[in-house]
């Protein structure tokens, strides 16, 4: 893969290499958008059963040789449990038109904040996912929106730890406790909504740093994720912005500016939290 050869990669605990930046397909996508993202240079594509776009994503990617791209999908929170996880994943494979995905994640740790059975359901889902990996149907397995206590619960019965945790991460909402926990346990953090879904647009600090480095505020957000060892998954439907969001290797942020971004007040949060009802902001 061209992007990988340039050394712009991250390596998972299981040795698998991923590009340092992936393409988020939620509400993007459209076969046309995924094709445009491929043409722009993306080689890692994040989808989910919940996004209802796996067919389009699969169609766009299958036009290119299989070894040139990676795809991740997810098991939705109402499909947790051993049998339901298998059924969900078989549906994803069918819709994607593949016999193997590169990454499979549990989308959220709980069906609802007050589900008393979430620990058992997560563990059973994980047992199914370990089998999927052993059978070569998913090369890597991981989770999404898991906080340290969800991860600790999973590890009680897991035979292998998750290789990835995909969480909301952007300036103004860093979830540093989870990022640190993952770093200590060799788990790659992926950033969903790495741009704060435009809720950060016009923030004075991002504007100031954009001016200083001669780049857009969006590129400041994405470079910031890279500085902290986090793999961002920006979504764009616009080919120009898709390309812009990959241009992250011609500049770097000074440690002092990274600290300023880390110290930014809480802002741009989606309102979604695995243990609480959604907050409409
Ligand atoms: N695991 C989970 O629970 C979860 C939850 C949410 C999202 N995700 C994943 O994370 C991906 C990204 O998150 P997201 O889609 O919520 O938000 P995001 O990537 O933070 O933001 C996307 C928004 O930013 C705009 N944008 C993109 N590039 C830009 C640029 N260079 N300058 C200005 N605006 C720009 C896009 O508009 P245009 O399209 O017009 O460019 C779109 O409105 C999703 O697609 C999905 O794959 C996962």
Describe the 3D structure.
The chain has 281 residues and is of the alpha/beta class. It has one domain: NADP-dependent oxidoreductase domain (TIM Barrel, Alpha-Beta Barrel), CATH 3.20.20. Helices cover 38% and strands 15% of the residues. It contains eleven helices and ten strands. It has an eight-stranded parallel beta sheet. A two-stranded antiparallel ribbon has the order 1-2. β1 and β2 form a beta hairpin. α2 packs across α3 and α4 packs across α5. The N terminus is likely disordered. Bound molecules: NADP nicotinamide-adenine-dinucleotide phosphate (NAP). The site of NADP nicotinamide-adenine-dinucleotide phosphate has 27 residues, from α10.
SSE pattern? HEEEHEHEHEHEHEHEHHEHH
Provide the CATH architecture. Alpha-Beta Barrel
Number of strands: 10
Compute the number of structural domains.
Answer: 1
CATH classification, class level: Alpha Beta
Oligomer: single chain
Main beta sheet, described? Answer: 8 strands, parallel
| Fraction in helix | 25-40%
Proportion of beta-strand residues: 5-15%
Principal-axes geometry comes out as globular
Q: Unreliable runs, pLDDT <50, ≥5 residues?
A: 1-7
The CATH topology is: TIM Barrel
Supply Rg.
18 Å
Strand order of the largest sheet: 3-4-5-6-7-8-9-10
Distance, first to last CA: 40 Å
Q: Name the CATH homologous superfamily.
A: NADP-dependent oxidoreductase domain
* DSSP summary: helix tally: 11
